[in-house]
Amino acid sequence: MNTLEVQDLEKTGRKPRDSISSKEVHGTDSDTSSIDVHDFHQAEDDRGREDDPVAAALRHPEDPQNWSTRRKALQLFIMTLAAVVPDFDSGIGIAAMFALAEEYDTTPGIIVNMTSNWSIFLLGWGGIFAVMLMRRYGRLPVLFWSQLLSLGFLIGCTFAPNLSTFAAMRCLAAFFGTAPQVTGLYIVTDLYPFHLQARMLNIWTMGFILSPFLSPFAFGFLVARASWRWAYGIGCIYSAIVVFMIAFFMEETMYDRTVKPVPPRPTTGLRYRVESLLGATGVKMAKYRDSWKTVTWAPLNVMWRPHLLPLMIFEGALFGFSIGVNVTNAVFLEEPAPLGFGFSHFAIAGMYGTPIVAVLLGEVVGRYLNDWIMRTSIRRNNGVFEAESRLWACYIATVLYVVGFIVLGVGMQEHLSPAALVMGWGIAELATMVNTVAVYAYANDAFPKHQGEISGLINLFRTLGGFAVAYFQVPWAEKYGALQTFGCEAAIVAALFLMVVPWTQWKGRSLRERFSLH
């Protein structure tokens, strides 16, 4: 096969591991992720045979990979809207930081440490628990109930009478609201074949990478003119729209194709729809799925793998520092000289348009870059796709990240024009988008049976990194200057990249053959 012939592949609508027999993999088990495209086409030829029971099972209309393109696109659209919710809600606190400090008679630093940082911390742990529930009861009920509870706690933030109540409500909203940030990888792999997954992951990750900047950008203008409670009220309206979309249009994408024979639906029609949404169907189907012991230990069982843990540390540092920039930039820009710029609330809100544009550009760059890397890798390996080829995008992302942070640090310290801040911040966020998609795609290819754990662990590492940064970034910059702060953070990311990515590409296949999960 010469250039992967994407036109032919796009007609298949199935990921190779779901349609190829034991020949699909070169290694010890289905997690070794060296996919032979020739076997892929042979499997698709077999799929069309009317007398083949395996092919008939693959054509089952209940299999989400056999759904229409429009039906799949709707699920991905809702999932992306839902992925915006957790960080969008968290970002409202950035826009309202100074108004909250005035309302509760405290300082912006206490608001950040007591509410923003701890809500970021709980985003990661909420995702781990959501994955456990999804493996037992399905995607839809966990997504619905988590977003409904998150909406309730966000309403509590809106009407909180004191800081303690506000902090508790904000943290609980983050813990329950994070489910879409780990469900998306499940949904993408449930719906789409291998060759389309990186492209669809690009869309989903764009949602939650973009979301922390949307609320400071939109509500910064509002809070400057009206009460901060209006900002949280509008956040509640958006969350309510997402809950409505999930309740009426989202479908259960979990399909138990590994069970032979595939268990039939316990009910049909409207009753099936209601029971699936509320979780009754998941409870009935749980007997066919993994035990509580399995799903509880699965995150730890995946996390220690040597071809995954170093990459998660690298991604956690890279993403975490970018979260820290989002939280602390409002402080830098608001503070008067010599530390900050003394910008008005309107100017600060406008500055948050920078990372929004950068993430959108990152989606476009990542879409074509990942497709090009996939095609080139398959062509050079005579039709075999190696998971480690996904990591070539990290080289480009790391260079851009270092450049962006240094430019941002110089711009802050030397009080250059806002254009320097825009360029530095924008380049860094574009790099974050490209790198995050590459890490998700690699981990998904290396652990195709553990999408939930992969998504939950990456979410945990990135939020733990972001949780810590806001505590030390402002004091560090106040004492030694923004250039040293951002320069050291860029150096840490570059060092982790040099230690992790080339080594993973060099040893990745042997590590997968030795340490992959059965």
Walk me through the structure.
The structure is a single chain. With 518 residues, the chain is mainly alpha-helical. It has one domain: Growth Hormone, Chain: A. 76% of the residues lie in helices and 1% in strands. The protein has a two-stranded antiparallel ribbon with strand order 1-2. α19 runs antiparallel to α20. The longest helix has 34 residues. The chain is globular. The relative contact order is 0.14. The N terminus is likely disordered.
Question: How would you sum up this structure in a few lines?
Answer:
Residues 8-29, 36-51 have a biased composition (Basic and acidic residues). With 518 residues, the chain is an all-alpha fold.
From the helix content, strand content and strand pairing, which structural class follows? mainly alpha
CATH fold descriptor: Growth Hormone, Chain: A
Binned, the helix content reads: over 70%
Order of helices and strands: HHEHHHHHHHHHHHHHHHHEHHHH
The strand count comes to 2
Describe the strand arrangement of the main beta sheet, using strand numbers. 1-2
